[in-house]
Design brief:
By secondary structure, the chain is of the alpha/beta class. About 40% of the residues lie in helices and about 20% in strands.
């Protein structure tokens, strides 16, 4: 190591106070600004975060090395293997040739130092049978590890790595030099400001037995200001054995037979002072030591100079680290032996440490939606996810309304309530948008984004049900590439804008469309998209016992849907009066299904000309009876012959079940008709015109049949959401995550009970 570099490191680590290197102090603010900008870009989805196919436990630090990452990585891998879980390792491979992901052992080249790197090769030797992958692209590395059969990925030095999501971030702090001089590089040894420690899931103060009690206590006190004390652990360095290389042969020597005599120590590691202090603690007589740059590959000239020095000092041998051993010339054979201490780390609370890892491994899953119909689909999807991934926690984020659909099914809602006059965020009319703004749309969106951002890094890949606006909002709040069940955009409606195409291509994992033509359009643009049926049809719950909604009611069965948005309280009169008009012309029976978020008592209280019979849930007017059904739309639609409806998703569902639809001429319904086509008839918002359209369909068997067939054909069958769940299980690795969590939890429970 050059004198210049040695001088800089002494200053950066706080070993030398007064130095010309202090002139670097202002430059740290460039680093601070860049790190903050980088974190923001990833948190806002401008640079996207990708969920890997395996649970990831990251071992990292916030300093320029020397925190015992390698032995800690080994410990965590061994802990998983002890629990019967196949853990693999992904390392960047410092100072290696540029190459794609490789598995150490896949061929002879993969075992060379310039291909694999020193630390991966050292760990491969220490962990026989463990799959170790070297990859500068950590996401690709984890993917390769998954293909090799690993169930968990332990990644080395990834605390500052933002592109790959992790389940557990373990951060190490060197007890002997916790914060260096307190500055950020290049003015100090810190990679990020101290506040970065607050992101850690677990924090381990390493080399605790090499630091004085006062320094250890002050370090812990400083860290407890930044994160929960229950997340902080300490670890000591312990001798496991010695490696002796003599006459070109390597053997293991027990701790009881430590090397005798005097030695020349050399090292090329991040914290050489810690290594030399460790030798002193072990009672090893070191006459002199030589330090090289971290990860230095020793040449024959380096060895010759060390041999010359050793001869001049008349020492009995050399001592170096295991990492240095990998960097020595192959087949080295000296006249004196080389001794290498094999060290391990010992935690102060092994069970507590494992328990914290286990808790973080529990999958937290989130379904997001932005509409009342989308909420209904989201509920079905959430229930399917909950059924498939039983040990996972499932929550919902509803961008529109208060999440009533989810709450009714016992699913936790993470979003604040947003109720707008239009019933949405941005609807079809500028006037409605202005009304929403006056109602506090801006503040509501701000509070939702704030709530979403507070959940950052706590959830797996978000599963979105809705449109590109929803996907972009989730990306902005979570940074994680979501998957999207697209319920809005279609080539049959307005297609996708260029910016939407870009977002879907570069910022989503996968998209399920509501028709085959849209999927084809998106794939042509490079989007991972597929059509597996219209998700609306999955609102039909085949497992729910059939409900006799219509009973002994006589006449043509007409279903009434007043809608689900706030305007429903005004629109319900139009629907009911159309039923009254229809009953005059034809013998019919009526069932009305209010949306779950609609207050029925408020709905019926001001209906002029109608009487509400509470005990029968019935509305009556001049002999026309309308039964109010408080169950699912699909249950009522099963027996219906015709729908007069103002709904969106609900209208589509009924059409898909073969129920002809009559609705009103307005912008939203005109857009929807492009999807429903011949399955829907649109007329002016007038009771007589709605009734006339209904009579025309009911009296014309051929027209009725053609509309039924068109609805079934255009909407597709049931099962789209099953494909979504299957993708999450396999491509996102959620099946494996649940298995790993269950197995690790079971192991810890048995260990805690002393079994």
């Amino acid at each position: 190591m050059s004198k210049l570099l040695r001088s800089y490191l002494r200053y950066a680590r706080g070993e030398k106070k007064n130095s010309l290197w202090a002139l670097l102090y202002p430059l740290q603010f460039i680093t601070r600004i860049w790190m903050k900008l980088r974190i923001t870009l990833y948190a806002r989805g401008l640079l996207s975060v990708t969920e890997p196919p395996l649970p990831v436990v990251s071992i990292g630090n916030n300093s320029l090395g020397g925190t015992n990452k390698t032995p800690m990585t080994e410990l965590v891998v061994r802990q998983f293997r002890e629990a019967g879980i196949e853990a693999g390792l992904v390392s960047r491979g410092y100072r290696t040739r540029e190459h794609g992901p490789i598995w150490i052992g896949q061929d002879e080249e993969s075992t060379h130092r310039d291909t694999a790197g020193d630390e991966p090769l050292m760990l491969a030797k220490r962990l026989p049978g463990v799959k170790i992958v070297v990859s500068r692209d950590r996401v690709q590395g984890v993917a390769l590890l998954a293909s090799l059969g690993a169930r968990v990925a332990v990644t080395d030095d990834t605390f500052q790595h933002r592109r790959m999501a992790r389940d557990v971030d373990i951060v190490l702090v060197d007890a002997t030099c916790p914060f260096g001089n307190g500055n950020v590089i290049p003015a100090g040894s810190m990679r990020e400001p101290k506040s970065a420690f607050g992101r850690a899931d677990l924090l381990v103060i390493t080399k605790a037995n090499q630091a004085g009690p006062d320094l250890l206590a002050s370090t812990r006190e400083e860290l407890e200001k930044l994160l929960d004390p229950r997340k902080i652990f300490t670890a000591e360095i312990k001798m496991e054995s010695w490696i002796e290389i003599r006459n070109g042969e390597e053997r293991t020597v027990s701790v009881d037979h430590s090397p005798k005599g005097s030695f020349l120590a050399f090292s090329a590691i991040g914290s050489p002072a810690g290594f030399y202090n460790f030798l002193e603690q072990e009672g090893i007589s070191v006459k002199a030591h030589r330090t090289f740059r971290d990860h230095h590959i020793f040449t024959q000239n380096d060895i010759n100079r060390l041999v010359e020095l050793a001869l001049s000092l008349n020492v009995d041998g050399f001592i170096c680290t295991e990492k240095d051993l990998v960097n020595l010339p192959e087949g080295i054979d000296l006249d004196v032996p080389i001794y290498i201490p094999r060290i391990v780390v010992k935690l102060d609370d092994d069970i507590g440490f494992r328990t914290k890892i286990m808790e973080k491994l529990k999958p937290n899953l989130m379904v997001a939606s932005n509409g009342y119909g989308e909420d209904a689909i989201g509920v079905v999807l959430a229930k399917k996810i909950k059924k498939r991934f039983k040990v996972a926690d499932i929550s919902a984020f509803a961008f529109v309304g208060s999440g009533t659909h989810y709450r009714n099914e016992g699913i936790r809602v993470l979003s604040p309530s947003i109720e707008m006059p239009s019933g949405g965020v941005i609807k079809y009319s500028i006037l409605e948008f202005i009304k929403d703004l006056r109602h506090g749309l801006g503040g509501s969106i701000s509070s939702q984004m704030s709530a979403l951002s507070s959940l950052y890094s706590r959830y797996r890949t978000p599963v979105c049900v809705g449109d590109v606006y929803l996907m972009a909002s989730m990306l902005w709040g979570q940074g994680m590439k979501p998957v999207l069940v697209a319920t809005a955009k279609s080539v049959h409606l307005s297609g996708h804008l260029s910016v939407e195409q870009f977002l879907l291509k570069h910022r989503t994992r996968f998209v399920w469309t509501r028709d085959a033509e849209t999927a084809e359009e998106l794939r042509a643009g490079g989007v991972n998209a597929e059509f597996c049926g219209n998700p609306v049809m999955d609102l039909i719950d085949k497992e729910r016992p059939e409900v006799d909604v219509w009973g002994q009611m006589e006449g043509s069965r007409v279903l009434l849907l007043p809608g689900s948005r706030p305007r429903t309280y005004d629109d319900v009169k139009l629907i009911l009066d159309s039923a009254k008009e229809l009953s005059v012309r034809k013998k019919c029976c009526f069932v009305m299904v209010p949306a779950p978020m609609i207050d029925v008592s408020k709905l019926v209280e001001n209906l002029v000309g109608w009487m509400f019979i509470a005990d029968k849930d019935m509305l009556v007017s001049d002999g026309t009876k309308v039964r109010i059904f408080r169950g699912e739309v699909a249950e009522a639609a099963m027996g219906a012959e015709l729908l007069i409806g103002l709904g969106g998703t609900a209208n589509q569902l009924c059409a898909g079940l073969g129920v002809p639809v009559v609705s009103i001429l307005e912008k939203g319904k005109l857009i929807q008709k492009k999807l429903l086509k011949e399955a829907e008839v649109l007329v002016n918002a007038d009771p007589s015109e709605l009734a006339n359209a209904a009579v025309r369909i009911l009296d014309d068997p051929d027209l009725k049949k053609s509309m039924q067939e068109a609805g079934i054909r255009n909407l597709g069958g049931v099962g789209a959401l099953d494909h979504v769940v299957e993708y999450c299980a396999s491509a996102l690795g959620w099946d494996n995550r649940c298995t790993v969590y269950e197995k690790y939890r079971s192991f810890i429970e048995k260990r805690s009970c002393g079994e």
